[in-house]
Predict the structure of Citrate synthase.
Amino acid sequence: MTMQYDNLEDKLSQLVEYTKDSGKIDLSLYTEYDVKRGLRDSTGKGVLTGLTEISDVIGFDIDERTGEKVPTDGRLYFQGYNVADLIKGMEGRRFGFEEITYLLLFGSLPTEPQLNDFNEILSIYRELPDTFVRDVVMKATSKNMMNTLQRCVLTLYSYDEKPDDISIPNVLRQALSLIAKMPLIAVYGYHAYRHYHENQNLIIRNPKPELSMAENILQMLHPDGDYTALEAKVLDVALILHADHGGGNNSTFTTHVVSSSGTDTYSAVAASLSSLKGPRHGGANLKVMEMFENIEENVTNWEDENELRTYLTKILDREAFDGTGLIYGMGHAVYTLSDPRCVILKEYAKKLSAEKHREKEFALYESVERIAGECIAKKRRLLKPVCANVDFYSGFVYAMLGLPKELYTPIFAISRISGWSAHRIEELVNEGKIIRPAYKYVGHHRPYVAIERRTPRKTSHSFSNN
Ligand SMILES: CC(=O)SCCNC(=O)CCNC(=O)[C@H](O)C(C)(C)COP(=O)(O)OP(=O)(O)OC[C@H]1O[C@@H](n2cnc3c(N)ncnc32)[C@H](O)[C@@H]1OP(=O)(O)O
Ligand SMILES: O=C([O-])CC(=O)C(=O)O
């Protein structure tokens, strides 16, 4: 017998009540049992769960006199090198993302011959298996390219002769292969989606071995295969800035957690992609763009700070935009006064907005950055200053480069897979223990009740799970 649709809705809504009721934990228990909610201690600092040499994320300095932590401008180091210095050092050179990937994976900056060899290896691995585009990328196309990436990465497992071998040589081969292939999958997935769902011409352009990752993304993406030097340079800088961020960020921690179980590389990368997609992590770059579209529609005078403040307060009060109460692109788990990546991207946003005559929008971003910080501090219980993060200006920069919104978070992933790979190898090289934190049980043990003696549960909440 087929259930009526209305009936199904009713039945589901009752189950929704049950599951919400059953899953609810009394928040005061976190304090009672000293449980670190979100793995953060009472000062908001992340609980120490691992050691890494890959990158260092600094949001506080220690006052030498008092020994106290003092909020500071953020600094990010890859294998000991300040990212700002790396970007500056590469100014005369054309592209740096490949070099940074080498640095993250192998621990030192490559010499010219080493870099040339590495680029050659990447260009060999860039090739997708025969018919992969036709049989996998073009099938069951998804509106969200992060899901497409996950699906395709998981399917590449089936094309690998040694998918479950987690020896370091094999994992490195798989990592390099995925790093090289990811841009193709993202861009082809985007074209396939546009073709099937938006009736656009299908463009599948091969990558060119002599081009950098940034150039290849642009030439495969643009209908005419053309791009400017500035576009490629800015995209390359964005790729460098997103390449790693310590072991504790949600997607890299996911890499550590799943790698510690001994799972295969494809599953580990798919898991990290799932994490990065979330709007409180890498997916925030897309949310920032949507939020600005919403602000631009609802705030009549962008220069009126009071009107902006009122609207941002509405967002925080869950009365506007997506109802989550979050101002996307603001706040960070570690950084306090500034996120160094945001500082660099903001410079590019300023430069590009002048070139593209979008200064008014840039001014709006700057105002929101300043006013949102004040509003969040007023409305939330903050343990540290709040600043704009890497996702705040990145979407605006991508938009000015003509990149489609669908690819904002995939670009983050195309870059971050370098960091995930370095962390996965670090986890495996050190033969870490399986990551398995403890959970305190706060339910109640109960005697079994035979089915004929059961009565439907009431859902007004008591924390007893009866
Ligand atoms: C690449 C990246 O992942 S960068 C981050 C991208 N994410 C975003 O931009 C989403 C918006 N920002 C946020 O949600 C948060 O700032 C995060 C997830 C980045 C960091 O979260 P936390 O480490 O928990 O931040 P923190 O401890 O400073 O937050 C203190 C309080 O302020 C709130 N808060 C922090 N940032 C924001 C924000 N942008 N909008 C509204 N409230 C915020 C937190 O929810 C928390 O409130 P609570 O105590 O009621 O739960
Ligand atoms: O460190 C974090 O929590 C989030 C972040 O900025 C990143 O992963 O780039």
